[in-house]
Amino acid sequence: MPTCDDGPNAENIKPVISTVISVVVPTYNEAENLPVLVERLHKAFGGGYEVVVVDDSSPDGTALVAESLARDFPVRVVVRRGRWMGLAGAVVEGARAALGEVVVVMDADLQHPPEVAPLLAARVLAGADLAVGTRYGRGGGIEGGWPVARRIISRGASLLAKLLLPEARPLSDPMSGFFAARRACLSSISPTGRYKILLDVLSQCRPAEVVEVPYVFRPRHAGRSKLGLRHMADYVLQLMRITGWRPLKFALVGATGVGVAEAVLYALPLPYWLAAVPAIETSLTTNFALNNAWTFRDRKAPWLRGWLKYHVANLAGIAANYATSNALVLAGVSRYLAYVVGVVAGFLANYLLSETYVFGRKAVDISPRTSRRA
Ligand code: GDD
Ligand code: MN
User: Fold this and answer.
1) pLDDT higher than threshold 80 for residue 234
2) CA-CA-CA-CA torsion for 288, 289, 295, 298, nearest 10 degrees?
3) In which band, very low, low, confident or very high, does the pLDDT at 316 lie, cut at 50, 70 and 90?
4) Ligand 1: residues whose CB is within 6 Å?
5) Phi/psi of residue 115, nearest 5 degrees
6) Which ligand 1 atom sits nearest the alpha carbon of residue 176?
7) Among all ligands shown, which has an atom nearest to the Cα of 60?
């Protein structure tokens, strides 16, 4: 006789599958792409993974498609109220909802091949803190090529990141949106921009071991890209926020230095080639003092050593300035204008050398997770 007992029933006990890897996929209008993506991820991983879809209330019903996929696959859906609120925030929310210790971040449109996702995850499982998919490293590429304009924009953006963010320099593709990291890192991030979450991972988590995994960027499967012109502005703003507006502060300090030098040139009734020497020296010293106290106040250099190194770092700039301005004065240009042109000539080299050499990171830098900006 069957009992009416409420005892354990095989159907009520769900098998406990340990989720090791969470694939976080931000979506906005990707209904057509999601089924193909999930199927290919399932084939690639086999098991031990989950997909966390983070949808910003897509009008095309992406969330409904994701929910129906959840019947056959380990898919979970996070729906954010509000539309198109930014890929970066969606990724962080996905990481907060993730069950796995390792999180792979990828686009839904199949531009990032799902078969590469397990390779990225494997590198983090093996001990790396961050594994970045790269289009530009050896073995990587862009299928079908890109129009020259898009190539230049992508390379330019990458160059700018390397110029301004030391942590982006070792990467061949710092613009990548395809990477794996630990959940603890990703879930703790406060995004500084709408799109480039990898830059926040680099600057906020300070991953010690970073590896690259090449992949071939494919044409979009269906739908349209959400990146456009206004995201370039967002990107530049993001770089400024991450650097604490350093490049701008550095430029402002440089401008005060020009004022100082011009005053010295005005005060000294000497031929230009002679007066330029104390003019340059005085402004170097006031610039160093201001940069040490303000621009780089979070990583101050010791006074005498810093001041000396600042001279070394500025050697190229000093030489360029001195040569250019003297040539202009010889050509009959006013000494005040000649000096300004000379300063412009030396500016870029100065910033680069100061940032890498004078104000280089100390070994005893703040530890990875306490370095987060509030
Ligand atoms: N939830 C959410 N919210 N998702 C978004 C949003 C948003 O506001 N904006 C875009 N997405 C989703 C898209 O649906 C897609 O799955 C993914 O984020 C990437 O968006 P795309 O519009 O396809 O960007 P892309 O192809 O131009 O650029 C991507 O690839 C580049 C190369 O790896 C991005 O990942 C770039 O950051 C990356 O540089
Ligand atoms: Mn895309």
Assistant:
1) yes
2) 110
3) confident
4) 26-28, 30, 54-56, 84-87, 90, 107-109, 111, 175-178, 195-196, 225-227
5) -65, -20
6) 33
7) 1
Q: What proportion of the chain, given as a percentage, has pLDDT over 90?
A: 75
pLDDT bin (cut points 50, 70, 90) of residue 357 is confident
Fold of 3-242: Spore Coat Polysaccharide Biosynthesis Protein SpsA; Chain A (3.90.550)
Q: Which ligand is the nearest neighbour of the Cα of 177? A: 1
Structure tokens at 143: 């299928």
From the CA of 37, the nearest ligand is 1
DSSP structural state of residue 291: I
Crossing angle for the helix pair 272-290 and 315-330, nearest 10 degrees?
150
Task: Output the DSSP codes for 3-62.
Answer: -------GGGS---PPP-EEEEEEESS-TTTHHHHHHHHHHHH-SSEEEEEEE---TT-H
* Dist. CA 97–CA 77, nearest whole Å: 9
In sequence order, which residues have a C-beta less than 8 Å from that of residue 262 and are 6 or more positions away?
Answer: 279, 336, 339
- Count of CB atoms situated within 10 Å of the CB of 44: 17
Pocket test for ligand 1, best of 83, 226, 238 (most atoms within 8 A of CB): 226
Residues of the chain with CATH 3.90.550.10: 3-242
Please give the distance, rounded to the nearest whole angstrom, from the Cα atom of residue 225 to the centre of ligand 1.
Answer: 7
Sheet holding 75-79, edge to edge: 75-79, 49-55, 21-27, 102-105, 179-182, 130-134, 210-214
Tell which residue, 255, 302, 139, 120, has the closest CA to residue 201: 120
Q: What is the pTM of this model?
A: 0.82
Token pair for residue 337? 């204008």
**Residue among 25, 34, 83, 87 to mutate when testing ligand 1 (max atoms within 8 A of CB):** 87
User: What pLDDT, on a 0 to 100 scale, did the predictor assign at position 94?
Assistant: 98
CA of 84 to the centre of ligand 2 (A): 14
Taking the centre of ligand 1 as the mean of its atom positions, its distance from the CA of residue 266, in whole angstroms, is: 55
